[in-house]
Design goal:
The structure holds two protein chains of two kinds. Chain A is α/β, with parallel strands linked by helices. Chain A is built from eleven helices and 15 strands. Chain A folds into two domains: 179 residues, Rossmann fold (3-Layer(aba) Sandwich), CATH 3.40.50; 151 residues, Glycogen Phosphorylase B (Rossmann fold). Helix content of chain A is 32%, strand content 17%. Chain A is globular, with a radius of gyration of 21 Å. Chain B is globular. The longest helix of chain B has 17 residues. Chain B folds into three domains: 170 residues, Rossmann fold (3-Layer(aba) Sandwich), CATH 3.40.50; 168 residues, Rossmann fold; 60 residues, no CATH class. The chains are: A alpha/beta, B alpha/beta.
Chain lengths: 358, 437
């Protein structure tokens, strides 16, 4: 890897579609600031569809193979973002052991969650990333919570260095031409961000789809796109044992094609979800966003992180989708504390990596 | 002479009853007259009920009987220590009355909160007063509520000194038995292999320490139940992991206070009993063998200053000599200090009685679990039915039928779970099933 004089060579490692997207976004920001970057990771699983635009790493190698390659020796820092963060600790340990064996200093490893969480989910993320040198956290809320819990930890088990870097793992703004989302007048687009894990109760997903159908029928001047927020086995349905012939879906309600999550969010007027992390993108892009409050503040539903966002409403409060346009804005203080308030995250990262070198 | 302060404490599972018991350390001058209602449940340990009886009047009414009890409104305050959504349901059931004619309502947590703080707090918002352990909980709550309509929620710190601080009067350390008590927790660690390793590590330590006794204090006896459901009782885990235990290693079912008051050391993974040990002058040590895993509460207890890997300890003599006191800053952060005590609860309740407190103003976009309690109650009841936890299902559905007496499906589901004949119950459950989302 060639690098400009004085610039670092940062290797960003991913192992699925979500982390590849995050690495590509980060690489673009780093390069804009004169840093040399290389993205590496697994190629996309051909048996699975992704909601994200194709983000192919520059070098297609698994993290395990990367460990044995000389790429790691030439990197000044490693950003490692793995689907199963528990693999992270074994990766870091192997990386450090190999460096010691080769009598070379191990390049510092930075990592972090690819969403803004609170409560038990945040504590799990902290645990998953304990081995790294630098832990990237989205906002002040996460920083305060992690600092509080680690403040008394023994010196022989120090937490990683913490750095708040904002919402770097999602596009900061929609593409030019879509800055204001859907048109001010009909037809409007509603993106329903649906998840594998929520609602968790038996029948919950069917109930949610029935509600979306009802809204679509009551609002013919809207289009409703049901958008899965994570990858899926090609051909599998969002609702287990879903039989299309048993559903009479209105013409203005469709399931999103693969790869379109960001473009749908960009052209939407409103977004509804139980607890998808991509609702943070919708909020940050100024789209009217509704978190479905009917499932309560529950760890299992992923809703605890959204308490206090100011965008949580009951399904019954919306009869016609035009009402979504009248919803109050997201609590900006909350949104900023969850990471939106930090716009120089990549500069902070570069500075922190410089400091780690010394 | 001022009249006594009449306090009703309502608990269901054994942990909740222990929390009620821990509160009852009020100085005489406050003249607190305590009634404890232990909701009848199968498997509640008899010792816990006996201890509750010594604190005042013991009631054994189910939820419906409590809510309709003619004396209910004679109390100055009611402390509600129920599990899950019931904590919110109870408040809703009483909140139809204005605060000037009903007792003040307060609630709290049973011991150290290791997980689901945000969720648990969301069930409690709207109570007149919420008891918290210490600054850790208070800071977390402040972060949670900042900028929300719930930011004015009244709280009081009641601390983790649950046994009145007998430490000073207890047996001096060197005069105590060379005995280490391990306070078992039902689900921490939860993983079967970790639980087996836990027993093996303790047994190995006993083998390396022949002049000591290692006692495992099971959280519950095999025929008892607690809030968490254990798949394998610790007595079975002992058999599964070490087979034949060393002669100085055994399970001991005596009450924990008795064991702590005579032992030199107390070990735990993340039990609130850590603080009980300090109360009884017993040196606590936290088992670090399972890492910093938050699923075991280790992320909280790692800061205790006495977090040690017991598989790396030479023997218990060495541990006893090397082990210092817990980190005082961590203790204070958690709420273990003389400045936080249950007395503060009564003082705060008396102050609340004389001040006008505005109820939360509903604001569009802000929901807590209290806003949707009835639906959640039904989902929780269905979950309990799926798990075959009939006591919990009955309790939830009874509460549901009190909140909505005319709701036919709730009444039918209640009749179904009350059916003791297994086949008939199954049939009724199939016939009365409704998708509650």
């Amino acid at each position: 890897m060639q690098s400009a004089e004085g610039a670092m060579t940062i290797l960003l490692i991913s192992d699925n579609d979500r982390s590849a997207l995050a690495c590509n976004l980060l690489a673009a920001q780093l390069r804009k600031r004169g840093q040399t970057c290389l993205t590496a990771g697994l190629s996309m699983d051909p048996k699975r569809d992704s909601p994200f635009p194709l983000s192919q790493p520059q070098v297609t190698l698994s993290p395990e193979v990367l460990l044995a390659s000389n790429l790691l020796e030439t990197a000044s820092a490693l950003g490692v973002f793995l689907k199963q963060p528990r693999k992270l600790s074994s990766f870091i340990e192997s990386h450090r052991n190999l460096a010691a064996q080769r009598r070379r200093p191990a390049a510092p490893v930075f990592s972090g969650p690819l969403q803004a969480s609170l409560g038990d989910a945040l504590m799990q993320q902290l645990y998953d990333h304990l081995g790294c040198d630098l832990l990237l956290l989205p906002g002040e809320r996460q920083h305060q919570a992690v600092t509080a819990i680690t403040q008394h930890w023994p010196s022989e088990s120090p937490p990683p260095r913490l750095l708040t870097t904002g919402l770097w793992f999602m596009p900061e703004r929609p593409p030019i031409g879509s800055l204001n989302g859907g048109s001010a007048t009909p037809p409007h687009l509603l993106v329903a961000l649906v998840q594998d894990q929520a609602p968790s109760a038996t029948g919950g997903k069917s109930q949610l789809l029935r509600q979306l159908v009802q809204w679509a029928e009551a609002s013919p001047d809207w289009s409703v796109v049901v958008q899965r927020d994570g990858n899926w086995d090609r051909g599998s349905h969002w609702i287990p044992r879903f039989k299309p012939e048993e559903w009479s879906l209105p013409n203005n309600l469709v399931f999103a094609a693969p790869g379109q999550l960001l473009s749908h969010l960009a052209s939407s007027s409103a977004c509804v979800t139980v607890s998808s992390p991509w609702a943070m993108t919708a909020m940050s892009w100024g789209r009217k966003t509704m978190l479905v409050g009917d499932y309560g503040i529950h760890t299992n539903e992923g809703t605890t992180s959204w308490f206090g966002c100011g965008s949580m409403h009951r399904l019954q409060s919306i009869q016609h989708l035009d009402q979504l346009l009248e919803l109050p804005d997201t609590n900006q203080v909350w949104l900023e504390s969850m990471g939106w308030g930090i716009h120089d995250g990549v500069d902070r990262l570069i500075n922190a990596l410089e400091e780690l070198k010394t | 002479m001022s009249s006594p302060f009449r306090l009703l404490l309502i608990g269901d599972s054994d942990s909740q009853l222990l929390a009620c018991e821990a509160l009852c350390q009020f100085p005489d001058h406050l003249k607190v007259d305590v009634t404890i209602n232990a909701i009848p449940r199968d498997g509640t340990p008899a010792t816990i009920l006996q201890r509750a009886q010594t604190l005042g009047t013991l009631w054994r009414f189910d939820m419906g009987q409590v809510l309709t009890h003619p004396d209910l409104h004679q109390f100055d305050a009611i402390g509600v220590y129920l599990t899950g959504s019931k904590i919110s349901d109870f408040r809703l059931a009483l909140s139809l009355l204005s605060r000037s004619v009903r007792p003040l309502l307060f609630c709290g947590f049973n011991g150290v909160v290791l997980e689901k703080f945000l969720e648990g707090m969301s069930w409690r918002l709207g109570y007149d007063l919420i008891c918290l352990n210490g600054p850790r909980d208070q800071d977390a709550l402040q972060q949670m509520l900042i900028g929300s309509p719930f930011a004015g929620q009244a709280t009081v710190l009641t601390g983790l000194r649950r046994n009145g601080g007998h430490g000073a009067a207890s047996i001096p350390h060197d005069n105590r038995r060379r005995q280490m008590v391990f306070a078992e927790q039902v689900v921490m660690p939860r993983d079967e292999q970790d639980r087996a390793d836990m027993v093996r590590i303790l047994a190995d330590l006993a083998r390396r320490s022949p002049n000591w006794e290692v006692l495992i204090k099971p959280r519950i006896a095999p025929d008892e139940t607690t809030f968490h459901q254990a798949e394998t009782h610790i007595s079975k885990t002992v058999l599964q992991s070490i087979g034949q235990p060393p002669s100085n290693f055994r399970l001991d079912y005596r009450p924990l206070p008795e064991l702590l008051s005579q032992s030199r050391l107390m070990a735990t993974v993340s039990s609130t009993a850590f603080f009980d040990a300090l109360d009884f002058g017993c040196k606590p040590v936290v088992m670090a063998d399972f890492g910093m895993n938050p699923a075991n509460g280790s992320h909280v207890f790692a800061g205790s200053g006495v977090w040690r890997r017991l598989d790396a300890v030479e023997d218990l003599n060495a541990l006893d000599q090397a082990l210092g006191q817990p980190n005082p800053e961590w203790l204070a952060w958690m709420g273990y200090g003389r400045e936080w005590k249950p007395e503060q609860l009564i003082v705060s309740l008396q102050q609340l009685r004389t001040t006008e407190q505005e109820p939360f103003q509903a604001k569009s976009g802000y929901l807590s679990n209290a806003n949707l309690s009835f639906n959640q109650l039904r989902r929780d009841a269905e979950r309990a039915i799926q798990e075959g936890n009939w006591t919990e299902a009955q309790s939830l559905l009874k509460l549901g039928s009190l909140m909505r007496p005319t709701h036919r499906n709730i009444a039918r589901r209640l009749r179904a779970v009350e059916q003791t004949n297994r086949l008939l119950r199954q049939l009724l459950l199939i016939l009365t099933y409704r998708d509650v989302g």
